[in-house]
Amino acid sequence: MKYITYVAIFLFGVMVMVACGGGGDTPTSGEEATGPVTIEFEGGDIFFDKDEVTVQSGQEVTIVLNNVGTLEHSWVLVDGSVDPLLATEADALAGATTGDIAGGESASITFVAPPAGDYLFVCTVEGHAAAGMWGDFIVE
Ligand SMILES: [Cu+2]
């Protein structure tokens, strides 16, 4: 009797796992992979709180820059071939620039992630990239 009970419980468990596994998993994870994403940055005197982020090509990306310093800071997306120390707002891709944001202020920009590749985000305020205010923006 006991053995049969264990077998019955085991088979029931397998059936539940199969039923659930075939459910909504695939569409949900697909949506999450390409759905909009918001990435929040803290920028201060003189740093970003992140040095690398990764998004999906074609994904709608919202960047929030919270300037927690007293100096002006910016967040500008540029191609990976650009020297971050020489980058200016004119290098911004896909309209992805916050412009110069005063200390204590926040800004939010939304853009569509460019084709897969290696990009950079840079604070284009003079001297800030040289002090380390840039990082890798990876598009998969
Ligand atoms: Cu800066």
Descriptive keywords:
140 residues, alpha/beta, Immunoglobulin-like, 2 domains, four-stranded mixed β-sheet, binds copper (II) ion
Summarize the topology.
Blueprint: H1 2-21, H2 25-34, E1 37-44, E2 47-48, E3 52-55, E4 60-67, E5 76-79, E6 106-112, E7 117-122, E8 134-139
Parallel strand pairs: 1-4, 3-8
Antiparallel strand pairs: 1-2, 4-6, 5-7, 7-8
Bound molecules: copper (II) ion.
Question: If you had to describe this structure to a student in words, what would you say it looks like?
Answer:
The chain has 140 residues and is α/β, with parallel strands linked by helices. The chain has 2 domains: 34 residues; 105 residues, Immunoglobulin-like. The protein has 2 helices and 8 strands. The protein is globular. About 18% of the residues have low confidence. Bound molecules: copper (II) ion (CU). Copper (II) ion binds next to loops.
Q: What's the short version?
A:
This protein is of the alpha/beta class and 140 residues long.
SSE order: HHEEEEEEEE
Strand portion, in percent?
25-35%
The main pleated sheet reads as: 4 strands, mixed
N- and C-termini, Cα separation: 56 Å
Q: CATH H level of the largest domain: which superfamily?
A: Cupredoxins -  blue copper proteins
Reading side by side through the largest sheet, how are the strands ordered?
A: 2-1-4-6
Q: Give me the number of helical elements.
A: 2
| CATH level-1 class of the largest domain | Mainly Beta
Are any ligands bound, and if so which? copper (II) ion
Q: Which CATH architecture of the largest domain is right?
A: Sandwich
What is the radius of gyration computed over CA atoms, rounded to a whole number of angstroms? 23 Å
Q: Would you tell me the structural class of the helices and strands?
A: alpha/beta
| Broad shape | globular
**Low-confidence parts, pLDDT < 50 over ≥5 residues?**
7-11, 13-32
In total, the number of strands is: 8
Write down the CATH topology of the largest domain: Immunoglobulin-like
